[in-house]
Amino acid sequence: MSTSKPYTSSEKYRQMLVRDGDRRFQDWHNRFLSYQQAYLEDMSKRKK
Fold first, then answer.
1. Strands in the chain per DSSP E
2. Rg (Cα) of the chain, in Å, rounded?
3. Please, how many CA atoms are within 13 Å of residue 46, restricted to the half-sphere of its CB?
């Protein structure tokens, strides 16, 4: 019974890492933008 994984070329692996990095960056960036929006709204309320 062999449990060997299929071979993944280095180029395919690199593309997988790039896509994962892009996804992680998008997740982080969306959280950052919502935090920034809430921060700016809070600051504008405090000025009034």
1. none
2. 21
3. 6
